[in-house]
User: Fold this.
Amino acid sequence: MHGELPKRLLTQGASRVRRFVAGALIVMAVAAALYYVFGSPVPQPKQFRRFAAEGPVPVLVAQAARADVPVYLDAVGTTRPLNTVTVRPQVDGKLISVNFKEGQDVKQGDVLARIDPTIYKAQLDQALAKKAQDEALLANAQNDLARYDRLAASNAINKQQADTQKALVAQYTAQIQADQGAIENTQATLGYTTITAPFSGRTGIRMVDEGNIVRASDATSAIVNITQLKPISVIFNLPQQELDRVNAAFGKAPLAVDALRPADNSVIERGTLTVIDNQVDPSTGTVKLKAEFANNDLLLWPGQFVNVRLLIDTLQNVVVIPTGAVQRGPDGTFVYVIKPDNTAAMRAIVVQKQDETRTVVQSGVTPPERVVTTGFARLTDGATVIVGGGAPGGAPQARPPGAPPRSSSRDGAQARERRGGGRPHAAQ
Assistant:
């Protein structure tokens, strides 16, 4: 038993030694792999060394130019129809026909629906008969008046009888006038049984079906809505600070207004400003404006939100550069101008107008000078630049005659591996 204990201790010690040796071998293998991957630097190709910190700065440039630049005021507007109406019955009765389809374009005067006219035709006939009756009585009274006048002239009858007959004639004459008014009233009522479109537009969803009883006094007895779509208007608001400029421009000539799609600001329709509201909203400090659009293609729809831009001026023959070229520093706004020797010069400028794409320069740049638009990270005043990623000045670097085409860094490394039978060695 005492002999087995030393043997067990020897076995455990040998096992620990083997584990230690195996761990050391693994660590050495990992270290060798890391050295193999990262320990030996790969020489950079020439085209990469061109853009090293000590080389020329790669930039993109654009030429300053002269152009006419429009001056817009931007807003968000709501599309509204010029006219809209809810067609309702003006008389009571049974709806005997509906003569339109939902969503149909109708013209002014087109018949939309008809109400049963039987009762109203009877009322008209009664009024006509009453007038005919009173006209007969008037004719008889006029004949009697003529006889009474002759008898009164010869003192055959009392003159008072002639005066009484004259009053009777006047009474019948007034009665006939009242009959004519009753006839015109019943004719108008009869006309209301035929419901027509008050103006040209598009019908909406029908609100009542044929066969229903409609009543003029019932607010829910609407038949259909008609909306005028061509032309159409857009209502938008501008800050009160812009009111002077808008009034000054509007007093000279009609102002153009563009309706834009909210997604990409492309022009949907072009129109003109028609109305500037006569007061500023004190709660918002804005003034309401109304523009009218022909809308021949029905691209604008009532209730739709659209972006609006109002043209109030056009700057003639001004110097413009891309907005991306404009930089701002402690001393103000500046750009980098590329000289003919392909060096960058910092130049202070005065900006007259700026938007997302281009800037109007009042002074500081003269066409056709080139300004830097991209590559400001390492750019300093007086630095040498490479325009557009090529040779200085933007011209591509020439290759000697018969030279093979340039390869990328990855292709060059693979070629060296094939020639050397393994990974490239460090440069000596």
User: Anything to note?
Assistant: The chain has six helices and 22 strands. Confidence is low (pLDDT under 50) at residues 39-52, 389-428. The first strand starts at residue 57 and ends at 63. The longest helix spans residues 4-39.
